[in-house]
Amino acid sequence: MLAAVVMLAAGSSPVLAARSGGRDQSFAGDGVAVLDFGPRADGAAAGDVLVTSSDKVVTVGPVGVGADTVFGVSRLRADGTPDRSFHGTGRRLTSLTGRDVPRRVIALGGGRQLVGGSAGDAFGLVAYRRDGSPDPGFGTGGAVTTDVTAGPDQVLDLRRRPDGSILAAGTAGEGFAIVRYRPDGTLDPGFGDAGVVVTTAGFWGTPNAVRLQPDGRLLVVGSSEPDAHGYLGFAVMRYTADGTLDETFGGGDGLVTTYPPGREYSRAWAVLVLPDGRLVVGGGGYGEGDYSYFCLARYLADGTPDSTFGQDGVLSTWLQPYYAHVNALARQGDGKIVAAGWTDGEDWSDALAVVRYHPDGTLDRAFSHDGSAVVDLAQRTAEARAVATRNGKIVLAGEMASYAGRRWAIVVRYRQ
Q1: Is residue 119 one of the residues assigned to a domain?
Q2: What is the layout of strands, in order, in the sheet containing 175-181?
Q3: Residue 235 belongs to some domain of the structure
Q4: Considering the entire predicted model, what is its pTM?
Q5: What is the residue range of 169's domain?
Q6: Has residue 354 been placed in a domain?
Q7: What does each C-alpha distance from 187 to 142, 170, 200, 242, 371 come to in angstroms?
Q8: What is the pLDDT at residue 345?
Q9: How many domains does the chain have?
Q10: FRET label pair with 356: which of 95, 126, 140, 235, CA 20 to 30 Å apart?
């Protein structure tokens, strides 16, 4: 059964839980749910999270089953207990090839969800109905696989268009691809080459995240190539919907590279598109005495650094003793930015971390005393992979691991 288990650092109190940035004690007893995918599961992680209008929490991530890796989907009720109206247990395992890794989940309407990731070396998508069963109106038995290139392909982002069609974007061989599907999962021949567009220019550096803009343009973020000093910076590239570099972005070549001050090695892992078209990129910056920091950079819609944010568009936040890194970003309805990832915990284990900023990049010190909250799981290492905000709650999804290497998917809920 999918279980809600409380595993927290000492010191939790009703007063702390009731304030902004306190763990929500109405969720799983003390704010943390550990997801159990049953006796067949050898290990699990949560890589993305979706919160419904009724505060149900849907997570997706890879689950090990023997020698295979499969799609693992879970749904929790608003109180953090398994939603047994979803497949009878609150969880669902789906195998497409036995080498399957889900990356994103979006709502399709009518209580349905679409999960995208990799099915072996192909794009893999599975649609689920409200009750957790595969949607027979999508693909074959609810599933679609698309072999985009001869190399490894994987979906990293999904977007449902107003007409019901679906855009899937991700890495494809040595480049990137956008694939458009009709609502029933068939390829849309009116888009690109029989529904598929592959980029014509490679990424300058190491790509870590892909995000579709509302207009169909593709953002890719990661680490730049080394500069003359061997330093790495944030790299952001934008492609048009037809797969060419967007010459309206950056210096006319579709590329922006940012070196956070004092950080010799910076890696971007998340990108957030704001309602006005500006972009926030998050990751980690390493330097200054072997420390690493939560690093954010904000850009105008054309890729120009936003000078109203932080220092010349960049800010760094130091958390616990040595290391910290942003994996995911979200925006609250009031414009505040939530960054989630990991930092050092006690006994040198990684701890799940979340930081909230005002729209101008200053720390929101009304959130958990000083703007940051850390969940340190005793004798465990943990990190947040995804974050969502809704109905006055901040929901993080990620993974926890024992020192012996066993992994569990976890969900943590905070009060905004």
Answers
A1: yes
A2: 153-160, 166-172, 175-181, 196-198
A3: no
A4: 0.92
A5: 96-198
A6: no
A7: 14, 16, 21, 16, 45
A8: 65
A9: 1
A10: 235
